[in-house]
Amino acid sequence: MSENLIIPISASKQEKYEALLPQIAALTEGESNLIANLANTAAALKQAFDFLWVGFYLVRGDELVLAPFQGPVACTRIAFGRGVCGTAWKERRPIIVPDVEQFPGHIACSSLSRSEIVVPLFSGNEITGVLDIDSEQVSAFDETDKIYLEKICELLK
Fold it and tell me: Which helix (H) or strand (E) holds 39?
């Protein structure tokens, strides 16, 4: 596949995800290097939606360690159960935060972040990392994001 994404500009959020999903599948299919796949996925999501920050943290022992991302510099390590990422890891589920200032224990890697979604990456029953996306807009994420980001994370096993 060509390394150019084709995303309809005037499309709805769902239509953008529908267009993006097979393109991420094509980018990652046949590539066994996880870091390469995470890097291309972060870039594709950033390009398609222009989120403030899109990236991954990988489980290393009892913390999450920064992995490929697109956006401003980020926190390097996050403890299990801490912040939105650590909580999603601990609770083994996606978390949507409409307003990060209302999330107890939110880790402010960027003062520009206003809302966030975190989706765990699973390998079998084990969480191997999380996909973390931040927006400069309050309430930027909803069930549509959760559904499609879970599908994208499924491609990254």
Answer: helix 34-49
Tokens at 129, concatenated = 């990392």
Distance (Å, rounded) from C-alpha 31 to C-alpha 108?
33
27-59 residue pLDDT tens: 999 899 999 999 999 999 999 999 999 999 999
User: Which residues, in sequence order, are bridge partners of residue 47?
Assistant: none
Q: Report how many domains make up the chain.
A: 1
Residue 1 located in a structural domain: no
pLDDT, residue 1, reads 47
Residue 68 phi/psi, 5° resolution?
A: -55, 140
Assess contact for 50 and 133: CB atoms under 8 A.
no
Q: Is 147 helix (H, G, I), strand (E, B) or coil?
A: helix
What is the dihedral sign for C-alpha 140, 59, 35, 112?
positive
- Residue 34 CB coordination number (10 Å): 19
Tokens of 147: 């559904």
Residue 8 lies in a domain: no
